[in-house]
Amino acid sequence: MFKPQDTADFTTKLKTLIDNPKLRQTMGIKARESVAGYNWEQATKNLLKIWQQQIEAKSN
């Protein structure tokens, strides 16, 4: 990825993606694979768990 707040690094990395369609394709495939196991039901369960933990921590 790129360094946060570093526009030069961001620009360089973006240009790399623009100039390299194979890299774009590979990154897209990997991104889809990495999120394939996520769904809204699981996301809301995880969020509720985090909220419950925070509520319990604040009430102790």
Q: Could you give the topology of this structure?
A:
Blueprint: H1 7-19, H2 21-35, H3 40-59
Features:
60 residues; mainly alpha; 3 helices; 0% strand; elongated
Provide structural commentary:
This protein is mainly α and 60 residues long. The termini are far apart. It has one domain (7-59). The mean pLDDT is 94. The chain has helices at 7-19, 21-35, 40-59.
Mean pLDDT: 94
Low-pLDDT runs: none
Strand proportion: under 5%
Structural class label: mainly alpha
* Number of DSSP strand runs: 0
Indicate how many domains the architecture comprises.
Answer: 1
* CA-based gyration radius: 19 Å
- Tell me the helix content: over 70%
Biggest sheet details: none
SSE ordering = HHH
Q: Please tell me what the overall shape is.
A: elongated
- What is the tally of helical segments? 3
- For the record, give the distance between the C-alpha atoms at the N and C termini, rounded to a whole number: 40 Å
Brief rundown of the structure:
The protein is mainly α and 60 residues long.
